């Protein structure tokens, strides 16, 4: 008997049970194909009828990698994350570079403006010395912005400070 009481480990799991679990997960939020397969495999094992359930979910448009990528990109932009981090997270979720690139393009985000905004929310003042500049650059890079976007954000902060003085 499994700890979860889902029938995993009790023998073969029927397709209806796997389908019900997949729909339950997809009702909470969108998942990518690879991500959903992994969750179902962890829950029911390799012997479960995963492929027919995944195909059924795609046929009924419950599972759509393109839609998932779009939602994921928008949610990460709202969190203040840059394109490099978003791209890496989507790769971890099993999406291809072409789909990731399309989702980032469709988001139509001004990454430079987002980097400036994220920097402005975190740091009240531009860096006063090299140590502080390195700290602020590391912060922006950890959020997923490339070097050009990071330096542009720091330059904008310095220009804004100059206009206030």
List the helices and strands and how they pair.
Blueprint: H1 15-28, H2 33-44, H3 50-59, H4 65-78, H5 83-92, H6 97-107, H7 111-122, H8 130-142, H9 147-164
Question: Can you walk through the features of this model?
Answer:
The protein is mainly alpha-helical and about 160 residues long. It has three domains: about 15-60; about 65-105, Winged helix-like DNA-binding domain superfamily/Winged helix DNA-binding domain (Arc Repressor Mutant, subunit A), CATH 1.10.10.10; about 110-165. The protein is built from nine helices and no strands. It is elongated and about 70 Å long. The model is unreliable at about 1-10 (pLDDT under 50).
Short description:
With about 160 residues, this protein is mostly helical. Helix content is about 70%, strand content about 0%.
